Amino acid sequence: MLTADKVKQIAREAGADIVAIGPVSRLEGAPKQYDARYMLPSAKSIIAFGFRHARGCFRGIEEGTFFSAYNTMGYASINYIYQPYVLCQVARAIEDEGYDALPLPNNFPWNAVNVGGQGTLEESQKANPGMSRPPAPGKPAPNVFIQLRIACFAAGLGEIGFSKMFLSKQFGPRQRLAAILTDAEFDYDEQYEPGTVCDKCMACVHACTGNAIPTDRMIKIRVGDRDVEWADIDMKKCSTFFCGGAPEKNPFCTTEEDREKFGATVGVAQAHKCKPVYMYSRALEGAAGCIRACMIHLEEQGKIASQFENRFRKKKQWTMETP
Ligand code: SF4
Predict the structure, then answer these.
(1) 58-67, 136-145, 174-183 — which is least confidently predicted?
(2) Domain spans of the chain, in order of start
(3) Ligand 1: does its nearest atom lie under 6 Å from the Cβ of 297?
(4) 194 Cα: distance to centroid of ligand 1 (angstroms)
(5) pTM for this one?
């Protein structure tokens, strides 16, 4: 018999770090482009997975010495290699018990606009007519995708912090998300009570190199039986500065041309100088606010289970002259 415990055990043995399962009904009311029913109409359950970033992948950026680990082993390889491998194993086990399983790693192209972190919430909820059109009246355009952070919150994997990052009791902001939709039903996990992990300390706000996290504009939605809110991130600033848009924090920025290209949008910045590895090359900022500052705060407060022998931050943050 396919129980929640069995699925979680299979997922952990396959390589997922954390797993939770919730009913798809908690996503009721999602905008059409995010509606799970257009992905797997028979779906009853969301299985949510968290895959940790090794903390050491942030060490080089923290010290200003080594910049390629977070992009590759901490970000792209989880999305493009590790998640698909693990999800396929779990999906096969579910299918062997006679149920459908739709694996959804965090790397799918052609999907809802905001999955890539682009655009305002309002923009992200509409189809992009330049991209695709609904195959029939009443249907969404085919770039449908569940919003992974919201789906994983609905499943009980963690909560959405003030920074909009997903926070778990195990790793705080230090994980990447994936999901499986299935028509199998289970005993479900409870959703987090908002505020379980995030205490609104604002460390993320102060450390973000792009000042992309406002304190006076919030997004508020209801997911399942919980009201959820997070800061209305300036996605244009975020998508520029997490790619190394702040020259004083980007040692690869050495010329006028570099300043212009690293300060451009994601696509341009990604193609410039530091070329993709596993299809990904950005993230030169090392998530200064939304991961590093948040993680340091949560470790110090003892609010997350993942603890280390040595503190992460050992000295004052480095900075350079603007070229
Ligand atoms: S840094 Fe503080 S306010 Fe920001 S998400 Fe983390 S716990 Fe919440």
Answers:
(1) 136-145
(2) 4-300
(3) yes
(4) 12
(5) 0.94
